[in-house]
Structures are given as C-alpha cells and as structure tokens.
C-alpha cells in the first residue's frame, strides 16, 4: 500500500515510496545488455542518442542537507516514477523529449522542495503551479502539460487519492503559453546578408582546400610524435624528443597562424583549426541542402554521397538520416545539393577519414563512422557546446554587420518582432544559426519561381502541411517586400 503523499510536508515523517521494483530494467545498450535499472541513481540512455554513443543520462533531484533528507528522497522517487511512466507508457518519445521532461521535473522538484511539499503536491495544485509556470520556458511548459496528463492518467497506480483538476491545469498552461511571444519562428536572413554569408562560405572552401593538406599532415605527425613518446625515458627527454620531431610542423603551422608564444600546444592548434573547418563545412552543407543541424551531425563518413546524371547534367545526392517527427528513431533519407555542397562533403570526408585512420578504433555493433565526429571518437557526433563554440568563430568570419536596410527588410518580412531581443542589431554581426539557413533556403528558393512547395517538402524532409503554409506565407511576404523595394527604387 503506497502512502498518501500529496499533502506531505517537512514537518511530517514522510516514508520514502517504492513505486516500482528497483531491479526493473529501464535501458539497454545497442547489443541488448542492461545499462540502467529503476533503482539506479542515474539512468543511462546513451544508446538512444543519435549516434548510439554520445552520453545521455537522466539525473534526479537530490540534496546534501541531512535535515531535509526524507522529503528530498520522496521528491526524487516521485520524479523517477513519473519519468518512468512518461517514458514507458503511451507514445514513443524521443531522447530529446525525455531529457527536456526530466529537466522540467528537476526544476519543479526544486520548487516543491523550497515550498516544503512533495513534487506530486505541487503538480496537482493549480494555484501553486500557476506561480511556478512563470519560470518555465515554452519547451518546459509543453512537456509539463504531458507530465501532468501522465500523473492524472496513472494517479491511482502512484497512490494519489485526490481528484486532479486536469482541465484547470491545462488551461493555465495554455494561457501561459499564449501570453508569451506569439512569433517564435527563426527569422529569414535578409537578402543582402544571405548573399554575403553564402559568398563568404564559398570563398572559405577555397581556403580550406589550400590549407587542409598541411593541417592533416600536421595532425598525423602530432599523433606519431605522441605515440613515440611512450618508448622514451624521463619526461624531460620526452619533451625534447617531441620538440625535435615536430620542429618542421611548427614552421609549417606558423604560416597558418600558429604562434607558440600565445596559441598554446601545437596539437591543440591543429585540432582547433580542423574543428573550425568542420564548422564551416557543416554550415555550407546545411546552406545548400536545407538540412537541420541534427541531420548534418548524423551524416555517415562512408557512402554519404552519390552522383547521378539527369538531362545531361551531374547532380549530387547526400545520403543520411533524419529523426524529426520519427520519435527519435533514425530513418534513412537523402538531399539534393549543388557543386558547393558537394565540395564541402568531399573536404569533410578528408578530415573524417584521417581522423578515422589515426584513431584506429573498430566500431562496435550499432556504431557508424560519422562525417563530423569528435576528435576522440570517429563514431561520436559533436555536442552542441562544441558546435556553438566554433559557430561563434565562424560568425566573425562570414557574417556581415547588420545595417538599417536589413532591419527594414526584416520588418517587411516578419512584421516587426523586436529584433534586438534576438541579437539582431544595427552595427553588430548577423547572429547566424543553422535553422536560419534552412528557412532562408526554402523561402528564397520558392521565391525564385524555380522550386515548388511539393519539391521543398521532399527536400526539407517531414515538412508538414502547416509548415508548408508557413513557408508559403514567408514567400508571399518576401515577394511583397521585394515589389515594394522595387517600386521605391523606381
């Protein structure tokens, strides 16, 4: 018999609930071996990540303060129980959705602890939740609604003996979401800025082609020197030996901007430059295919591209995976790209192939070498922090400074959204994101009159009817803006 916990407070001796068997299996790896059980303090869901390797875990509420240990244990167990039901019952949910849901519950667990009530007591109380919802972003609001619905559906199984006011709670969430900004769509890149970014990305391909042979050779020599150190004696001799081995590489890298006095270790410089190249290549592929960042990150190293001829012209087909609207499951798909996208794929293959060769780690079952892998594993995709780090460097290189003309064009296209809140200001560089490239490609391609909406639907993967209408609306506004500007100029 589970205790009645919905009214528990810190002044009461609260028994720790046991909602599910501690030995219940909650996750397995790619080969079917058990990774986590319900009773574990952390659930390892790494096998559900996009590449099956990247670390992904669910961490539950806990505190170090022994005076409040009983209440904290109850809150943690309630979080685990609700997450298990959310994960295992109902529709199949993607890893990203599960991570967002658990993060939202962690925030609400902290709020419940501050109020000295249990998590369930907070979730079923409209007045308290109305206050706490204000601190949740839109994503967490959405998953909170689904979590409360799970609690309502399985409340008796969890020992709740009160009626949950589901309609009122859902109404509060809906009201809170309506009070937020109505237009959260990624902005279209203004035409001048868009042309400038594409032009600079294409020019950067030439620079990458020139410098890549030296960088890859430097990478090979750095790895060879590191491995040779293992056969040497004391550290002082090792350092001298390595410096002697890499002297020609240092001279070569100085021509590419390496300064030993302020740029740190040589191998770190090489890895950083290659990562910057990869960031540029990822953005170029996205710009000339319409891929999402997650789709670019999952491109395989081997068999990533095929060419075919149609009407006397050579065309390039990039073959990869999509997970959007697939409940987190990878589905093979493909995109058509142009010559610049093709060049970017070939250059990325040279980097990834060298990394794959130097690491020499064979894949385990379920792994596939990636086109944009981390330097330490050919099978692990780059994490968001690393992508953002080098994206910021890329912005300084390829994005022009915003002018008032660009703001005026944005206001024509998007009906004035308060652009400064999104980092778009006159005198600052355009704050580029992957999805801007995707959306701008779709709008400008359709605006050209050469690409139909059905063709866009096939190219962009899983674009819904609602999104088709949205892109068409963006296109119509772009056309009206263009006509108005033409009238003013004439």
Summarize the structure.
This protein is mainly alpha-helical. It has 16 helices and nine strands.
Structure overview:
With 490 residues, the chain is mainly alpha-helical. It has helices spanning 69-88, 95-115, 119-123, 126-132, 138-153, 166-179, 191-229, 235-254, 266-287, 293-297, 339-359, 384-398, 404-414, 434-447, 453-460, 465-489, and strands at 25-28, 34-37, 42-44, 57-59, 305-310, 313-322, 331-337, 373-374, 377-381. The strands form four sheets. It has a three-stranded antiparallel sheet. It is globular, with a radius of gyration of 27 Å.
Task: Give structural attributes.
single chain, 3-stranded antiparallel sheet, two-stranded antiparallel sheet, 16 helices, 9 strands, disordered N terminus
Structural class: mainly alpha
Q: CA-to-CA gap between the ends?
A: 81 Å
Radius of gyration of CA atoms, rounded to a whole number: 27 Å
Order of helices and strands: EEEEHHHHHHHHHHEEEHEEHHHHH
Number of helices: 16
> Which spans have pLDDT < 50 for at least 5 consecutive residues?
1-14, 462-472, 474-490
- Describe the largest sheet: 3 strands, antiparallel
How would the blueprint of this fold be written?
Layout: E1 25-28, E2 34-37, E3 42-44, E4 57-59, H1 69-88, H2 95-115, H3 119-123, H4 126-132, H5 138-153, H6 166-179, H7 191-229, H8 235-254, H9 266-287, H10 293-297, E5 305-310, E6 313-322, E7 331-337, H11 339-359, E8 373-374, E9 377-381, H12 384-398, H13 404-414, H14 434-447, H15 453-460, H16 465-489
Antiparallel strand pairs: 1-2, 3-4, 5-6, 6-7, 8-9
Helix pairs in contact: 1-2, 1-5, 2-5, 5-6, 7-8, 7-9, 7-11, 9-11, 9-12, 13-16, 14-16
């Amino acid at each position: 018999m589970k205790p009645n916990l919905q009214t528990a407070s810190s002044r009461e001796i609260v028994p720790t609930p046991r909602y599910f068997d501690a030995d219940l299996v909650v996750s397995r790896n790619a080969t079917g071996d058990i990774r986590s059980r319900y009773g574990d303090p952390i659930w390892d869901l790494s096998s559900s990540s996009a590449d099956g390797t990247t670390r992904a875990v669910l961490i539950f509420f806990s505190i170090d303060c022994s005076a409040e240990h009983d209440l904290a244990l109850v809150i943690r167990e309630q979080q685990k129980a609700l997450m298990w039901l959310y994960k295992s019952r109902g529709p199949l949910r993607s890893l990203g959705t599960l991570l967002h849901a658990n993060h939202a519950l962690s925030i609400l667990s902290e709020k419940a602890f501050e109020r000295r009530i249990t998590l369930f007591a907070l979730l079923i109380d409209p007045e308290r939740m109305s206050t706490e919802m204000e601190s949740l972003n839109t994503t967490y609001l959405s998953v909170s609604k689904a979590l409360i619905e799970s609690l309502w559906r399985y409340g008796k199984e969890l020992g709740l003996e009160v009626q949950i006011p589901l309609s009122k709670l859902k109404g509060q969430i809906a009201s809170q979401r309506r009070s937020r900004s109505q237009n959260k769509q990624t902005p279209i890149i203004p035409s001048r800025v868009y042309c400038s970014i594409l032009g600079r990305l294409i020019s950067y391909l030439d620079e990458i082609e020139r410098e890549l042979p030296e960088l890859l050779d430097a990478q090979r020599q750095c790895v060879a020197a590191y491995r040779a150190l293992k056969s040497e004696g004391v550290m002082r001799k090792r350092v001298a030996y390595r410096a002697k081995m890499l002297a020609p590489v240092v001279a070569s890298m100085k021509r590419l901007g390496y300064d030993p006095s302020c740029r740190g270790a040589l191998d770190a410089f090489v890895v950083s430059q290659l990562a910057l190249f990869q960031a540029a290549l990822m953005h170029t592929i996205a710009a000339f295919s319409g891929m999402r960042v997650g789709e670019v990150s999952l491109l395989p190293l081997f068999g990533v591209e095929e060419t075919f001829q149609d009407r006397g012209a050579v065309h390039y087909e990039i073959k990869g995976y999509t997970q959007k609207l697939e409940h987190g499951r990878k589905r093979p798909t493909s995109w058509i790209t142009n010559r610049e996208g093709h060049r970017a794929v070939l250059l990325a293959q040279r980097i990834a192939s060298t990394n794959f060769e130097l690491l020499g780690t064979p894949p385990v079952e379920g792994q596939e070498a990636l086109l944009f892998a981390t330097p330490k594993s050919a099978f692990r995709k780059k994490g968001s922090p690393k992508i953002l780090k080098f994206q910021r460097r890329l912005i300084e290189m390829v994005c022009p400074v915003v002018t008032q003309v660009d703001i005026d064009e944005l206001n024509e296209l998007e009906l004035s959204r308060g652009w400064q809140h999104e980092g778009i200001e006159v005198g600052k560089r355009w704050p580029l994101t992957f999805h801007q490239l995707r959306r701008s490609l779709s709008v400008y391609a359709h605006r050209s009159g050469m690409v139909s909406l059905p063709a866009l639907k096939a190219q962009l993967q899983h674009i819904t009817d609602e999104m088709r209408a949205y892109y068409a609306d963006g296109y119509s506004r772009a056309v009206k803006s263009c006509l108005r500007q033409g009238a003013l100029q004439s």
